[in-house]
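[agent] plan:
  1. take the single chain provided in the ticket
  2. run structure prediction with default settings
  3. attach structure tokens to the ticket
  4. add a short note for the reviewer (M.T.)
[agent] executing step 1
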Amino acid sequence: MKTVNDIPTDPRARCAWVVYQLNLINSSFAAIGRLTGVSGQTVRGALFQPSLRQEMAIADTLGIAVETLFPERYDARGNRIPLVRSDKATNWAGQRHGQKRRFA
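[agent] step 2 finished; step 3 output follows
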């Protein structure tokens, strides 16, 4: 049985831990991806960028509650903390979204 103390909090260490745990049960990110209809890279990305669907698939495969595997993404009551994005988002040209490009 995996405990909260066994799971690393550092994202890179947690990724290595998850890969190890998946190997122990003869599974992989690609196998989870096939079950959920996405690529293995998409599943792996959930370890670094929030994706509820992929987080749940990883946690279910490992037999761990998603709140236990990703505690920083949940509050004390077990409710998911909403993702807050910066409103300073810019596009590839360095313009704020919605701005038109001006030519001299």
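[agent] step 4 note for reviewer: The chain has a mean pLDDT of 85.
[agent] ticket updated
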